[in-house]
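Hey, I'm writing a tutorial for new members on how sequence and structure tokens pair up, and I'd like a real worked example in the thread rather than a made-up one. If someone can provide the structure for the chain below, I'll link this post from the tutorial.
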Amino acid sequence: MSLFLKLSPKGQGLLYAILAYSIFAFTDVCLKVTTQIYDPFSVALYMNIFTILFLIPVVLFNGGFRKTMATKSLKFHVLRALLMLGNFLLGIYALGTLPLTTLYVIIFCMPFILNILAVFLLKENISVHRWASIAIGFIGVLIALRPGYTPISLGIIAVIIATFTLAFATISVRYIDKKDHWLSYIIYLMLTQTPILALIVMYRGAPLLPDFTDMGTMPWFISAGILYVAALSLMPQAIQKIDASIVGGLIYLVFPWGILYGYFIFGDVADLWTLVGAAIIIVGGSYLIYREKIEASKLKEIEERNIDHGTTH
């Protein structure tokens, strides 16, 4: 813990993002398993139910709902929740039809979208080094996916749309008041999504609750609920501490997890092209982190010089 506190705010943000993406990767495994039994709408609803169950004690420990829900940015919380709902449903559908590695290489296009949005909506300055690192990652995506050889299925189309909704949801966080409690990002997400999902599931004639006696899916739902709370808690804190474009670039780091989980849990074997693409993607993500560290060091040096200059006059 002491080592974490010694990190700069940007260093903490990087660590939050890396942990969040790593946790999200295993959450995807839980969802992929449960889509073999339930349809995407039911999986999303049951996932939210378990998330809420594990979220309540966390909220109470942090001062209760009144404290954690206080906000002046309600409309942006709701907007983010709706965007995340679209991403959630499309992602769950895709998980049921695609290997993890295929899904991830498509999602890896998100940093491009995020950088363009960051320039026009957030007025962020994207350095040449960042564009270069993301371009390296995109080359890796092209090598892994091999457009023209991979047929365009409904699952692939779903992931492409989900990638856009994820980018917009990431951007929307920057419009939310930084004074908002980090738990508010999860609470409003659950409050907005769960009633909508419940209505959809009811309309489809499916049960509102999963079969709690089914030991084939219960451990996965429980694990997903716990991990989802953890990952959703980390991501907003990361975005508040580092540029949205940096957070987007770090999404490349989930790819190795996708290869490992796909092989050991689902028996999916990544081919040579996928592995080569993954290696290039990791290089791009690593270079992005390296450049962020250098830029942070330069900024700190400038601030220290300004302080010294001020004390000598």
